[in-house]
Amino acid sequence: MEDHKKTGTTTVALKCSDGVILASDKRATMGNFISDKEAQKVYQIDDKIAMTIAGGVGDAQTIVRLLRAETKLFKMNRKKPITIKAAATLLSNVLNGNRYYPYIVMSIIAGIDKEPRVFSIDPVGGLMEEDFMSTGSGSPIAYGVLEYEFKKNKTVKENLPIAVRAVKIAQERDSASGNGVSLATITNDGFKMFDEAEVKKILNSLN
């Protein structure tokens, strides 16, 4: 993988009382070379489902295309949206079925149906549900922030600074993470991707 573009990466996802938060850095690398300073690592999958990706960019884009297509097919056939757990299980099955020629990705799928839910899926399909998660090379640093600051019953609005701080601090110590923060939320109102000015306002509030 050293000759291919990788996302290096710090991604986080938080389960809140009224929704979920997904955040990541923006740096993609090829070995020690920074190949992209605006890499996308947070993707909307359905109206109230999104995911983060850490790993190979090509594999990540393939997984995103597959999940978007499958969730649309499910909605067409069943006349209702797929649940968060079903989407996570689908990806788990796909990755497990390819375990001998694996997709080099570590994914988080999060969203809200009857309640907010956050799942992580490893490259061979291992599936776990937690209240907060982090993936990528900067995740040990991000987990330090989340373990200390995350509160399960806080709202999305209250937890936004915690998610941003976790990614920001990881970038300060992990050379493969950097170049800003991508931030998204999902509530009963749907998916929202924050623009650069909104993220900057949150970053400034941390100082």
**Highest-level CATH class:** Alpha Beta
Strand order of the largest sheet: 10-1-2-11-12
Say what the CATH topology is.
Glutamine Phosphoribosylpyrophosphate, subunit 1, domain 1
Flag low-confidence runs.
1-5
Instruction: Please tell me the overall pLDDT.
Output: 88
Beta content: 25-35%
Query: SSE order in H/E notation?
Result: EEEEEEHHEEEEHHEEH
Helix content: 25-40%
The largest β sheet comes out as: 5 strands, antiparallel
Summarize, please.
The chain is of the alpha+beta class. It is built from five helices and twelve strands. Helices cover 36% and strands 30% of the residues.
Keyword list:
single chain; 207 residues; alpha+beta; Glutamine Phosphoribosylpyrophosphate, subunit 1, domain 1; five-stranded antiparallel beta sheet; 12 strands; disordered N terminus
Describe the protein's topology.
Blueprint: E1 11-15, E2 19-25, E3 28-30, E4 33-36, E5 42-46, E6 49-55, H1 57-78, H2 84-97, E7 105-112, E8 116-121, E9 127-129, E10 132-135, H3 139-149, H4 156-173, E11 181-187, E12 190-193, H5 196-205
Antiparallel strand pairs: 1-2, 1-10, 2-11, 3-4, 5-6, 6-7, 7-8, 8-9, 11-12
Walk me through this protein's architecture.
By secondary structure, this protein is of the alpha+beta class. The protein has one domain: 4-Layer Sandwich (Glutamine Phosphoribosylpyrophosphate, subunit 1, domain 1), CATH 3.60.20.10. Helix content is 36%, strand content 30%. The chain has five helices and twelve strands. Strands 10-1-2-11-12 form a five-stranded antiparallel beta sheet, covered by helices on one side. A five-stranded antiparallel beta sheet has the order 5-6-7-8-9, covered by helices on one side. Strand 11 and strand 12 form a beta hairpin. Helix 3 packs antiparallel against helix 4 and helix 4 crosses helix 5. The protein is globular and about 50 Å long. The protein starts with 10 loop residues before the first strand and ends with a helix. The N terminus is likely disordered.
